[in-house]
């Protein structure tokens, strides 16, 4: 697959998938999507199979609206669970086999995971190798392990190395022992030819409460952009996790208490900053808080008025002009719920970053 100047790492969930479909319809080719199947509420064969099957149906429906090649991974799922007596990734690749997807291997994956890809190697033109940033503290060892990992992949297949920093909240806590320059020197002298190098990270922690309290707002430097600028001369493709933390999972919150602990929030970005505004508990203060949060967003100095469908939605909500029909009430202002705002802010982010880097 051809890889764009921007790779967007998303959860394969309805709202984030919907955002990418809208981007593709309006701006095809702005970014390459990388989807992680989200964590299941239970780590049983039945539950995980259900999550994979649902993810496939959602992706199939999305592809019917707008075709796009994508990358599929199971970073958040328990690889020890067998599905119909086969390895989980084996089942995923078989399930998604009629779609234009590329697989992922890694040093931290089970042998059966990587084998599921190697045994199907002729089905792909690109294979992604996802490596956690902690591996780069020993670049020589890492290079040797990567040589072993890709040794069975034919030379005509493209290889894309993902350097995944996951969550980096600030540069002060960044691991200074990581030396990408040494690694790139060793790779250039090795037997491996990587066609692409992708650097990805996120400035958003698993819980938004790590950044700010309810009923507050925050502006924060985006570490992912700073890291990429630091290493971009090495020829790295820019990647990020958008407006959802790579560590976040709905499955970590019991459904029966979701409404009690959830607070509305909007995360709005440009390349260098993110703005977060947060309300109070949904049960006490309601979803109507999104009206006020949207009003705060449109007053941020880097808000891009009517830049794309996402900004238009934010502006209309802020001005109470987003109207929906209600029985016996007629047309009334609507502000959407938490899932809608993930879709909206994801669309705003990937549209802006895709255009910026194109």
Automatic annotation (TrEMBL):
It comes from Idiomarina loihiensis (strain ATCC BAA-735 / DSM 15497 / L2-TR). Pfam families: Beta_protein. InterPro entries: Protein_beta. This is Phage-related protein. It comes from the Bacteria.
């Amino acid at each position: 697959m051809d890889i764009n100047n921007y790779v967007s790492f998303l959860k394969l969930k309805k709202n984030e998938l919907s955002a990418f479909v809208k981007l593709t319809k309006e701006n095809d080719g702005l970014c390459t999507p990388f989807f992680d199947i989200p964590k299941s509420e239970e780590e049983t064969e039945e539950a995980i199979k259900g999550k994979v099957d649902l993810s496939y149906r959602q992706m199939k429906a999305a592809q019917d609206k707008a075709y796009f090649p994508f990358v599929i991974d199971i970073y958040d799922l328990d690889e020890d669970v067998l599905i119909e007596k086969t390895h989980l990734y084996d089942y995923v690749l078989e399930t998604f086999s009629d779609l234009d997807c590329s697989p992922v291997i890694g040093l931290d994956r089970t042998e059966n995971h990587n084998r599921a890809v190697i045994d199907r190697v002729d089905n792909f033109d690109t294979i992604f190798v996802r490596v956690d940033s902690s591996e780069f503290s020993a670049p020589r060892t890492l290079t040797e392990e990567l040589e072993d990992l890709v040794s069975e992949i034919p030379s005509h297949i493209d290889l894309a190395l993902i350097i995944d920093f996951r969550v980096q909240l600030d540069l002060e806590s960044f691991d200074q022992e990581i030396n990408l320059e040494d690694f790139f020197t060793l790779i250039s002298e090795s037997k491996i030819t990587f066609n692409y190098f992708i650097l990805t990270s996120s400035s958003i922690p698993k819980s938004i409460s790590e950044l700010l309290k309810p009923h507050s707002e925050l502006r924060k430097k985006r570490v992912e952009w700073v890291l990429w600028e630091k290493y971009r001369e090495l020829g790295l493709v820019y990647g990020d996790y958008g407006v959802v933390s790579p560590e976040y999972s709905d499955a970590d919150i019991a459904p029966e208490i979701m409404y009690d602990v959830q607070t509305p929030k909007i995360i709005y970005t440009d390349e260098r900053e993110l703005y977060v505004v947060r309300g109070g508990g949904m049960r006490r203060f309601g979803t109507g808080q999104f009206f006020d949060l949207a009003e705060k967003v449109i007053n941020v100095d880097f808000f891009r008025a009517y830049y794309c469908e996402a900004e238009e939605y934010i502006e209309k909500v802020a001005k109470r002009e987003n109207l929906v029909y209600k029985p016996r009430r007629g047309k009334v202002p609507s502000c959407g719920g938490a899932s809608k705002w993930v879709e909206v802010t994801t669309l705003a982010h990937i549209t802006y970053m895709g255009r910026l880097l194109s």
